[in-house]
Known about the structure:
There is one protein chain. By secondary structure, the protein is mainly α. It has six helices and no strands. It is 71% helix and 0% strand. Helix 1 (10-30) crosses helix 4 (57-84) and helix 4 runs antiparallel to helix 5 (89-106). It starts with 9 loop residues before the first helix and ends in an 11-residue tail after the last helix.
Amino acid sequence: MRTQARAPRADAVRNRKKILEAAREQISLHGQEVGMDEIAAAASVAVGALYRHFPNKTDLVAAVIAEYLEGVADEAEAAVGRVGSGARALDEITGFLERVVEAAAADRAVKTRSTRTPWNVPPTP
C-alpha cells in the first residue's frame, strides 16, 4: 500500500526559511567558516532544528546556492516573458546578465562556493 508524504508542518517550513536566510547572511558576513551554532543562533532556532533540516554545512550551503539559482531561473523566465510581450531581446539579455552578476557579487555564499567547484581546479600537468 502506498502512502502519500505529509506536507511539512508550518513551523518546520518557517524554520527552514529562517535558517536559509541566516545562513546566507552569516556566510556573507563571516565567510563559509561560520559555524552551524552561529547560524542557528542567527536564525533563532535550536541547533537540533538546523541539523534536522541540514545534516551538515555542505548540505546547508548547497541549499543556499540552490535558492539563489532558483531566483536566477525565475529572472530568466521573466525576461523571456517580457521579450514575448515585445521587449527587445538584447535589452533583456543585458539586463538579465547585469542583475545576475550584481546578485552573485553581493552574495558571498555564492562567491565562496563558486571558487571551490571542480571546474575551477587547475589541470594537472
